[in-house]
Amino acid sequence: MIKIKKPSDSPPAKPGGFLWKALASFFGAGLSPVAPGTVASAIAFAVLWFVPNDVWPYWTAMLAVSLLGVPISSKAAKFWGKDPSKVVIDEVAGCMVAVLFLPKTPVLWAIAFLVFRAYDILKLPPAKTAEERLPEGWGIMTDDLVAGIYAFVLAHLVNLLLPQIANWTPWT
Q: How far apart are CA 172 and CA 51, in angstroms?
């Protein structure tokens, strides 16, 4: 005879499981079957466009996402495996760094987005070293923060050295 399990036969869910998974995956963006890091970054950039990024609440939020991302990423790595693609809270933190103090022009933000994704994928030094040598959540978060710093520097250099390109908008 085949015994069919009822939902009541399953063990109860562990408390807090939903919250850390939601945060680690940026509310499901990391569950995208195609390019979850890029999807999460695009959503983060879209949300950040509407947030003033030159005030202390932005700095506080950026610091909170970065620091809370460490234990959340560590827990996710234990649950989903080493540096799982579902974990995209690191991309959100990197995006926040990439657009810090950046004027809100479509060209600059597109540059910041493309450069951030390129550096995140390529993992140029010291990002690769940080990812490999730092323990779990620290490595997961640090490589994206480094990519965010690279994007920050390049986008600000474009703004400084090529203002005619940086300030171009397609609707003017």
A: 23
Element (H, E) at 135: none
Q: Residues 109, 149: contact at Cβ < 8 Å?
A: no
Interatomic CA distance for residues 127 and 144, integer angstroms = 7
Taking CA atoms, 44 is separated from 1, 75, 119, in Å, by 52, 22, 17
The token pair that represents 108 in the structure block: 């600059």
How far apart are alpha carbons 92 and 147 in whole angstroms?
Answer: 11
Enumerate the domain spans of the chain: 32-166
pLDDT digits (tens, 9 = 90+) for 107-140: 999 999 999 999 999 988 888 888 888 888 999 9
Express the helix, strand and coil content of the chain in percent, nearest 5 each. Answer: 65, 0, 35
Distance in angstroms (rounded) separating the CA atoms of residues 128 and 122: 8
Distance of CA 32 to the CA centre of its chain: 14
What confidence tens digit (pLDDT) does each residue in 22-63 have? 999 999 999 999 999 999 999 999 999 999 887 889 999 999
Cα–Cα distance between 129 and 56 in angstroms, integer?
Answer: 31
Question: How many other CB atoms are found less than 10 A from the CB of residue 123?
Answer: 17
- How far is residue 96's CA from residue 170's CA, in Å, rounded to a whole number? 25
Over its C-alpha atoms, the chain yields an Rg (Å, rounded) of 19
Give the global pTM: 0.85
